[in-house]
């Protein structure tokens, strides 16, 4: 008996922990907000001569998902776009400070 | 012991003081270092040989290239470019009036530092400056009419040695140094700088493509690329490279791009122009 | 009697779970290698040669007998994550992990594949 209850509980937990199945409907504003942040960071990166193309690709993907109504996925993709934008800014800042010729050219 | 230790430190400091200005003195010293790297590494190739790029390293493609060069795909662009070049503007003036030597056999001296503006200008920039000064609309960069003009002008410099001057002006040196920064800056999600592919990795393959040497790259531009199906200038190629490493390419004719072209062309000083060229 | 029935059912379930775990572990490992190969063909082949490539690049060393050359997974993991730290600052190998091109699980799948070479 116990085992069965345990099993049912286990599968229930598995179900609950699967994203997308259990979470209440996300509002599109969340993904939109992240997307906006990504966009402004991406612009900043480009102005810094350090934009990444992958940021644009992920922003486009997120927009498409939003249009399709897949808010959960759209948010995930928008978050990745924002990460890329942040990383690209970090790279540009780092390179401005510390670019150098490779040792074999010295 | 201690005494020796101190002495050696002193000697080290002294030698650093002596050597430092020699390590970096300016574009002339850079040139010796940059060209020296490839002369040492590929001692079987002359400096002029380097201008043949990947065909130095891929026998099969070299044969195909030589076959193509019997009827070069850029010939029409030269003819059309010459016609455009000689066509007078509405006010009766010509392109020839805007360049030294009537615009003939000068392509190997561009980009140049312009003391009036304090900035670097390539031929495309001068062409458009010339048009605007004579009441014409500027041309779109990188494609079309402007490339035909470049192609003709480059052809009149064929065989001339690249001769980029960095005059004794702090702004010229700053532009050169900025070009160096752009060249050695990692960009894109793949974190590549120009140098990663075209120094240590020159002659190696990235996927199926053989990488050319940094020194000798500019001499065949503008160049017909089968990928473009047209002749294009070096800044179009830069944009392609930047895209390949996952970067949003810098804007053509921006200060950063012009300075990059200045620095990158300077490192081929002394190598004969073989532009327009062909790459496929 | 019903109790017996339940017991029987739970026993069956137990056996089933055991059965699955025996089958699944090697299958999972196999799919991990296969997925790792797919990733390697996407991210590594531009510069490295390995079994199953034809238009591979030659910028990096060929990926051969990886397990004996890199017995410690962590070494390969760190190289794939950020070679500018793990190899040398001026390396041309992209920092796949640092720049989030591939995640931790994917790096591990690639290593599973590399260890099969």
List keywords for this structure.
heterotrimer; A: 0% strand; B: mainly alpha; Cytochrome Bc1 Complex, Chain D, domain 2; 2 domains
Question: Your description of this structure?
Answer:
The complex is a heterotrimer of chains A (106), B (280) and C (117). Chain A has 106 residues and is mainly α. Chain A contains four helices and no strands. Chain A has a domain of 74 residues. Chain B folds into two domains: 158 residues, Cytochrome c-like domain (Cytochrome Bc1 Complex, Chain D, domain 2, Orthogonal Bundle), CATH 1.10.760; 81 residues, Cytochrome c-like domain (Cytochrome Bc1 Complex, Chain D, domain 2, Orthogonal Bundle), CATH 1.10.760.10. Chain B has eleven helices and seven strands. In chain B, the strands form three sheets. In chain B, strands 6-5-7 form a three-stranded mixed sheet. Chain B has a two-stranded antiparallel sheet with strand order 1-2. Chain B is globular and about 55 Å long. Chain C has a single domain, classed as Cytochrome c-like domain (Cytochrome Bc1 Complex, Chain D, domain 2, Orthogonal Bundle), CATH 1.10.760.10. Chain C is 61% helix and 0% strand. The longest helix of chain C has 42 residues. Chain C starts with a helix and ends with a helix. The mean pLDDT of chain C is 87. Chains in contact: A-B, A-C, B-C. Chains A and B meet through helix 3 and helix 4 of A and helix 2 and helix 8 of B.
CATH superfamily of the largest domain in chain B: Cytochrome c-like domain
Rg value of chain A:
21 Å
Tally of helical segments of chain A: 4
Whole-Å distance between the termini of chain B? 64 Å
Extract low-pLDDT stretches of chain A. Answer: none
Q: Give the tally of β-strands of chain A.
A: 0
CATH fold-level name of the largest domain in chain B: Cytochrome Bc1 Complex, Chain D, domain 2
| Computed structural class of chain A | mainly alpha
| Average pLDDT level of chain B | 93
**Major sheet summary line of chain B:** 3 strands, mixed
Largest sheet of chain A: none
Helix content bin of chain A = over 70%
Percent of residues in β-strands of chain B: 5-15%
CATH architecture of the largest domain in chain B: Orthogonal Bundle
Provide the fold topology.
The complex is a heterotrimer of chains A (about 110), B (about 280) and C (about 120).
Chain A: H1 2-17, H2 28-47, H3 53-68, H4 71-98
Helix pairs in contact in A: 2-3, 2-4, 3-4
Chain B: H1 2-23, H2 27-41, H3 47-50, H4 59-68, H5 75-86, E1 112-114, E2 119-121, H6 123-133, H7 145-155, H8 170-184, H9 194-198, E3 205-206, E4 209-210, E5 223-225, E6 230-232, H10 234-244, H11 255-266, E7 277-279
Parallel strand pairs in B: 5-7
Antiparallel strand pairs in B: 1-2, 3-4, 5-6
Chain C: H1 2-43, H2 66-69, H3 73-81, H4 83-86, H5 104-115
Helix pairs in contact in C: 1-5, 3-5
